[in-house]
Write a structure and sequence with these properties.
Helices cover about 10% and strands about 35% of the residues. By secondary structure, it is mostly beta strands. The strands form six sheets. It has a four-stranded antiparallel beta sheet with strand order 3-2-1-23, with no helix packed on it. It is globular and about 50 Å long.
């Protein structure tokens, strides 16, 4: 009887094993890098923000990863909520360990465009501003996507077909292209095939009137569609984080972050400037419009700016700043006054140097 009792469970176990795929319970699965959980708190209240800019119906977009890990995920914070809390967005399936970068909202704030990259590979995506929204592939390869609403009300996404590549001298012989892809304004789905804008890579977006593109890094340029002219900006000096003006009238202006040394900008002194000390606004004639020294806007102890980005309200830009080049705070800067307001609470939450903030004002664009 004892042998029979032992035999019965043994037979049952064998039947269970063979009934499973390949006759075995364990099936190996691919390891996926988990997205970092957002902090539970860490941002100022909407009422505090409203005292600075007159509005709390504001959304902050940024990317974030656990310190030391370079697989950032996108998050957003809605300051009109009673307790502004970061909300994590989904990453594209199969791209969980890629770097998510440069979130850009649509004109109505309902969609977000961004790109993911790993090494030289890059893909542009659009998805609804919702934690459950599924990313929609716009282009592969594709980088630095920006929204553009044409005079007929159609919504487009502009993007380059390469990331991080820009020589000091651009020519029409470039094998790199900037495209625009029409998308559905409600769900972000692609409509038709992409149109070629110019056979050059532009990373800083398109102006509100559709006349100008801007780009930066090894060389900075503004491109004018009205006469197909290319205007060199700060020639011979590397720039970072280019972004085009979001004003509806003053559209021929770009913002960027400086590299060290003398700057080649009209009406700006030729004295040397420390790396990432200045956020510049320059027009297509390469003339200085505004300059924001991090030690003047904030204080002398701050080491540098990182990742400035013009908001949809042309009087504001968002940027990171740090005292130790390890922990960074997110600031909203008013261009007309040069005043800055910190959006995060430092004791509770700070970001990485590459967290690329964008501040969206609901109804706040000109």
């Amino acid at each position: 009887m004892k042998k029979l009792l032992l035999f019965i469970p043994a037979v049952a176990l064998c039947q269970l094993l063979v009934s499973c795929d390949n006759g075995w319970l364990y099936k190996p699965t691919q390891f996926i890098v988990p997205a970092p959980p957002p902090p539970k708190r860490g941002f100022i209240s909407g009422d505090s923000l409203a005292k600075f800019c007159g509005l709390k119906d504001v959304i902050l977009l940024y990317n974030w990863s656990i310190q030391g890990e370079m697989t950032p995920t996108l998050y957003y914070v809605n300051f009109s909520d009673s307790n502004p809390t970061p909300i994590q967005m989904k990453k594209p399936v199969g791209r969980e360990d890629w770097y998510a970068n440069s979130p850009m909202p649509s004109p109505d704030g309902k969609l977000v465009a961004y790109y993911v990259f790993q090494g030289a590979q890059c893909e542009a995506y659009v998805q609804q501003l919702d934690p459950a929204a599924v990313p929609i592939l716009v282009a592969s390869p594709g980088s630095d996507p920006h929204f553009y609403k044409d005079p007929q009300g159609n919504l487009w996404v502009t993007y380059a077909n390469i990331t991080g590549i820009l020589t000091g001298s651009l020519t029409s012989d470039s094998s790199y292209v900037t495209y625009k892809q029409q998308v559905n304004a409600i769900n972000g789905q692609k409509i038709g095939l992409p149109d070629t804008l110019v056979h050059l890579p532009f990373y800083g977006g398109i102006s509100k009137d559709g006349r100008y593109l801007c780009t930066g890094y090894a060389g900075a340029y503004i491109y004018d569609f009205s006469d197909s002219s290319l205007h060199a900006i700060n020639s011979g000096v590397q720039t970072c984080n280019p972004s085009i003006s979001t004003d509806s009238i003053l559209t021929d202006r770009m913002m960027f972050l400086n590299f060290p040394g003398p700057q080649n900008i009209n009406n700006f002194p030729t004295t040397s400037v420390g790396e990432h000390k200045m956020v510049f606004i320059v027009d297509k004639s390469n003339s200085l419009v505004n300059a924001f020294n991090v030690n003047t806007v904030l204080d002398a102890s701050v080491v540098e700016w990182q990742c400035p980005e013009w908001s949809n309200n042309p009087d504001y830009f968002a940027a990171l700043a740090s005292q130790d080049q390890v922990n960074y705070d997110i600031y909203l800067v008013q261009i007309s006054t040069g005043k800055a307001f910190r959006l995060n609470i430092p004791k509770e939450f700070q970001v990485n140097w590459s967290s690329t903030p964008y501040v969206f004002f609901a109804g706040g664009a000109s």
